[in-house]
């Protein structure tokens, strides 16, 4: 079903970027739906292909009417007619928010070979090598590299998503990062001292022809909202830069 032959005038419009329904998009839809009048129309813009299949059944389950979609060059416009009373929609939103705030990530790990452990999380498993290693070649990334990689990877992914929400064309997002420990010899056991991560220097490179000030604002918002960056900044000398090329 499309709305090409029957355009809708939306009461509320928002951009979901490239989030899928399992990555917070439903929370955003509920939040915007609570601001949409009863029988009013919410327009949600998305660049995530899976939304086309996931949104209609969610609307039926939530008691809203899925009206259809229009494919544009850069995104797809989805139209939903609100079909619940304000109190019920706000109650559903509050329940979702409460569940999100209480969510805990759970994993387990076990030693699975020489200098190797396997981590099991949700439907994933991945292997970690030594706690910290400065050898040129290892079979598995060390734990420190996973921490640094989590920081860099979370920022590149989130930055791309936030730019998409703002309709900013930003290409070739890449981060270079270096990190150092206060005393690697303390970890090895050769000296007494502090083996903690001491300093991280991170620089993000991105290409854009859009408004650079808007892109910089999105980057700053991305960093501020990053759980990994926020956590590390409280314990580590963290230097973060953006370079637009």
Describe this structure in words.
It is a single chain. By secondary structure, the protein is an alpha+beta fold. The strands form three sheets. Strands 1-2-4-3 form a four-stranded mixed β-sheet, covered by helices on one side. The protein has a three-stranded antiparallel β-sheet with strand order 5-6-7, with no helix packed on it. It has seven helices and ten strands. The protein folds into two domains: 12-102, TusA-like domain (Translation Initiation Factor IF3, 2-Layer Sandwich); 142-244, K homology (KH) domain (GMP Synthetase, Chain A, domain 3), CATH 3.30.300.20. The protein has helices at residues 21-34, 51-62, 86-102, 143-165, 184-188, 212-225, 227-233; strands at residues 12-15, 41-46, 65-71, 76-81, 107-113, 116-121, 124-128, 170-181, 197-208, 237-244. The mean pLDDT is 91.
As for the CATH topology of the largest domain, it is: GMP Synthetase, Chain A, domain 3
Number of helices: 7
The radius of gyration over CA amounts to 22 Å
Number of domains: 2
Q: Identify the CATH homologous superfamily of the largest domain.
A: K homology (KH) domain
Distance between the termini: 41 Å
Class derived from helix and strand content: alpha+beta
Low-confidence segments:
none
Which architecture of the largest domain would the CATH scheme give at its second level? 2-Layer Sandwich
Strand percent estimate: 25-35%
Number of strands: 10
